[in-house]
Amino acid sequence: MLFTATTSLAQQSKMEAERLKNIQSKQFWLATGTGLNNHFGLMGLSLEYKLKGPWSMFGGIGLGTWGSKLGVGMRIYKQYPVKRAFSFSLTQASGLTDIPLSTNAINPQGIVVDTTVAFNLFPVWQFNASWMRYWRLSDWCRFYIEAGYSFALSQQRTKNFEMITPGYQPSQLTKRVMSAFQPGGITLSLGFSFALD
């Protein structure tokens, strides 16, 4: 009976090693997901390519709260392409022009009023550092979560936007809201990636 159990465990270990070898042979991964302050925004796509050793490189494109988003970066894995990885990337949120937003603003008479005004949102560069955890769902599919921090590299946050409606100026509350709304801060994301080879 002990021999049977030992044999069964050995077979399971061998099968697990074969499955790991199978998924480790994959070099190209296409990911989709959603998140906050990640490298492809609220929704987007990312392509990852395995380099030598535990390293991989990736690029992503998507849409976020501050316009379109582009990002490139690298990852280092504990055990490619599953379990834990550390990721760092450089991204740019494109900004938006002439965007109408309902907020409060200082009107031409100097009174704070609730109204709809137009904004220009300027591009914001970010450096992102995050921890990632991958789970293998099959030999060609992974699920991941990501947590970290995104450092805004652009000018002061209150200078990354402007109110362009003639005669109106942003109130202090609007400045705080717009500063909090733009890219940078805690990174949280999740998604799936699929092997392409």
Number of strands: 12
Q: In sequence order, what are the helices and strands, one letter per element?
A: HEEEEEEEEEEEHE
What is the count of DSSP helices, taking H or I runs of 4+ residues?
2
Q: Domain count, please report it.
A: 1
Measured by DSSP, the beta-strand proportion falls in over 45%
| Percent range of helical residues | 10-25%
**CATH class designation:** Mainly Beta
Say what the CATH topology is. Answer: Porin
Task: Describe the 3D structure.
The chain has 197 residues and is α+β, with helices and mostly antiparallel strands. The chain has a single domain, classed as Porin. 17% of the residues lie in helices and 59% in strands. It contains two helices and twelve strands. The protein has helices at 2-24, 172-181; strands spanning 28-36, 43-50, 55-64, 67-79, 82-93, 96-106, 112-121, 124-138, 141-152, 161-163, 169-170, 185-195. The strands form two sheets. Strands 1-2-3-4-5-8-9-12 form an eight-stranded antiparallel barrel. The chain has a four-stranded antiparallel β-sheet with strand order 10-7-6-11. The chain is elongated, with a radius of gyration of 23 Å. The two termini are 42 Å apart. 29% of the residues are buried. The mean pLDDT is 89.
